[in-house]
Amino acid sequence: MDVISEALDKIGYLSLPHIGIRDIIDILVVAFFIYKVLMWIKDTRTWALLKGVVIIIVVAVVAFVFQLHTVSWIISNAITLGAIAVLVLFQPELRRALEQIGRGNLLGSILSTEEGMIEGLLDETVEAIVKASVQMGKVKTGALIVIEQETKLGDVERTGIPIDAVVSSQLLINIFEKNTPLHDGAVIISHNRVSAATCFLPLSDSLEISKDLGTRHRAAIGVSEVTDALVVVVSEETGHISFVKNGKIRRGLDGEGLRRILGSSKRRKKHERKMMLWKGKQKNE
User: Fold this and answer.
1) One-letter-per-residue 3-state SS of the chain
2) Are 247 and 206 in contact (CB under 8 A)?
3) Which residue, of 25, 57, 83, 218, has the greatest Cβ tally within 10 A?
């Protein structure tokens, strides 16, 4: 009888617990979170860190199995110091991750209001940016144009000189003209107006940036990594036009290519705005 009861206890211990709807939702949420974290890590330099952590875990398991007490002691103490070192060394990546979470669709839909919705680029603004970029590219005049999206660029604007003028190709060309007081730095376009010039942008510290790109392109990539801004760059050395978004750069664009990119962004914003207005209307009804 003791043997039978013991066997039944083991079977009961090994049996699967009851899984309800809440448990399934809990598992799916955790799996989705882990997937998103892994996808974010894969696109950053923390991917190498993750591989290093996996190696340390493997070494720790081997040390535990073979009773390597000295190795286990070193690893256990290194993990404590390593956690602090990770926070210090990868502070930019952690900050960027939190900013991306704050710009996510879920939080954005909860925190956004109709007054806070951005105004999409007007056709006149797109044409002014394209025309100015092409003209400056022909004469190799360096330019850095940042177009504000949902993330406000007030901190960046305060580093420059306020302008608050209608966007025109003549104004942009005149601002970036060499040896003029406003040519050094970036221009910020907000709500279809030139809000500030000579603004300083954060430089990207990514090691994947091509070595033939200078400070202007690195600044464009840097501001696009920490915000959702659209950035247009005209190279002073080659006159080539580039477009930067979310840390990704597209080089060698012509006027039509730049117009198509800015136009598609404008259409996407219009679609999002219509959806928000439609949801608000349905809610009121």
Assistant:
1) CHHHHHHHHHHHHHCCCCCCHHHHHHHHHHHHHHHHHHHHHHCCCHHHHHHHHHHHHHHHHHHHHCCCHHHHHHHHHHHHHHHHHHHHHCHHHHHHHHHHHHCCHHHHHHHCCCCCCCCCCCHHHHHHHHHHHHHHHHCCCCEEEEECCCCCCHHHHCCCEEEEEECCHHHHHHHCCCCCCCCCCEEEEECCEEEEEEECCCCCCCCCCCCCCCHHHHHHHHHHHHCCCEEEEECCCCCCEEEEECCEEEEEECHHHHHHHHHHHHHHHHHHHHHHHHHHHHHHC
2) yes
3) 218
* Distances, alpha carbon 171 to alpha carbons 110, 127, 139, 220, 243, in Å: 38, 13, 16, 20, 20
**For residue 219, what are its two tokens?**
């600044």
Q: Which domain holds residue 134?
A: 123-281
Pairwise CA distance, residues 241 & 234, whole Å: 5
Q: What is the tens place of the pLDDT at every residue in 193-238?
A: 999 999 999 888 777 788 888 899 999 999 998 888 999 999 999 9
Taking residue 18's Cβ as centre, other Cβ atoms within 10 Å add up to 6
Tens digits of per-residue pLDDT, 115-135?
333 457 889 999 999 999 999
Is residue 77 over pLDDT 70? yes
What CATH number corresponds to the domain at position 195?
3.40.1700.10
Give me the amino acid identity at 277. L
**103/111 Cα distance (integer angstroms):** 10
Residue 118 belongs to some domain of the structure: no
State the amino acid at position 180 in one-letter form.
T
Q: What is the pTM of this model?
A: 0.59
